[in-house]
Write a structure and sequence with these properties.
24 strands, alpha/beta, eight-stranded mixed β-sheet
């Protein structure tokens, strides 16, 4: 059961289909308009508990706060949350740690010693180099790259095509804009853009 039938949910469905290990795939979504779409929506996010005995579940919600809330509700309610790895991803399986509810998408690379927390998204063609530590509910967006020994705090979003230099620490709840290059530690939550990345100041 995939919770969330938006674009991210569709990509998750395709990933699961690649493995050919489930007899059926169903969506759960709280948006009534999704009932009109081609893919079958079996119920809302809370209906997961009705079917928990016979289904694995993946929370396919891009918003990290909602993803965290639902996943933690499900975990405390005894729902089986799975992690997913696309068959075209490259992982050092001997030494990579992957938390519950995390996904590694197609053509992503995760190198030795990396630790991925719960509910993490390593999106299409992103890379996480050696010994990186990725906190819970982080999103490393499409084509973003982390050099070695990077530490990312929970709830942070690294935008599409962004680059984080080696040995950098980024705190919790940071948004790094698309194409930004981070060359120094980020110790304050907020939005950072540009080359080198600097915090946006609201006027």
């Amino acid at each position: 059961m995939i919770v969330g039938q938006s674009g991210h949910g569709k990509v998750i469905k395709d990933l699961v289909c690649q493995w050919k290990c489930y007899q059926s795939i169903e969506f759960m979504d709280d948006d009534p308009k999704h009932l009109q779409k081609e893919d079958f929506v079996k119920g809302g996010s809370q209906d997961v508990f009705k079917y928990k005995e016979e289904n694995d579940v993946f929370v396919a919600i891009g918003n990290s706060k909602i993803r965290k809330r639902l996943q933690e509700e499900y975990e405390s309610g005894g729902v089986s949350i799975v992690s997913l790895i696309h068959p075209c991803a490259s992982l050092s399986l001997e030494s990579v740690e992957i938390g519950t509810g995390t996904v590694v998408m197609a053509n992503a690379v995760v190198q030795p010693g990396a630790v991925l927390g719960k509910g993490v998204i390593i999106n299409t063609a992103a890379s996480v180099d050696h010994d990186c530590k990725i906190g819970d509910y982080v999103h490393i967006a499409v084509g973003a790259h982390l050099a070695g020994n990077v530490e990312i705090g929970s709830g942070t979003w690294i935008g599409a095509g962004a680059v984080v230099s080696n040995n950098i620490h980024i705190c919790e709840d940071v948004m790094v804009g698309a194409g930004a290059i981070v060359v120094s530690d980020i110790e304050e939550s907020g939005t950072y853009v540009g080359v080198p990345a600097r915090k946006m100041i609201n006027c």
